């Protein structure tokens, strides 16, 4: 559970703090040329075992393509074509393409069809609202504010590690999102 008080937030000082805290990554280089190098490296070196090793945190088998896709430096259709043309095993291609295309499109469609409520509890199905309401008054062992979450100061070593990785490398392994959503 996150506590916040946006009504009293000093937006100007928060923007200044964000600017001062902003670090550029020395791991990821921007631009289309860099994006293509990362894609080609991934296809040549990591795609072959992607289905088996992508969720192993220190394997280095993640694609690292998300920021390039997000900021428009890579077109997902071009990625699909290159992956399909590769000599990687079908199981590896299928695992990667399921994450790139299916999950991405599900997210885009969800936001499109729930554009007014996608970021509120109103978008949840009734069974989820009911379950959450039934547990509304459950005792919470830990309650964190934004600062503790942002600085990786929680009881959860996995959250803290992922948060540090996000702050210092500007990436988080995709499998971690499955962990924090449970």
TrEMBL record:
InterPro entries: Crypto/Photolyase_FAD-like_sf, DNA_photolyase_2_CS, Photolyase_Class-2. One of its GO terms (biological process) is photoreactive repair. Gene3D superfamilies: 1.25.40.80, DNA Cyclobutane Dipyrimidine Photolyase, subunit A, domain 3. One of its GO terms (molecular function) is deoxyribodipyrimidine photo-lyase activity. This is Uncharacterized protein. It comes from the Eukaryota.
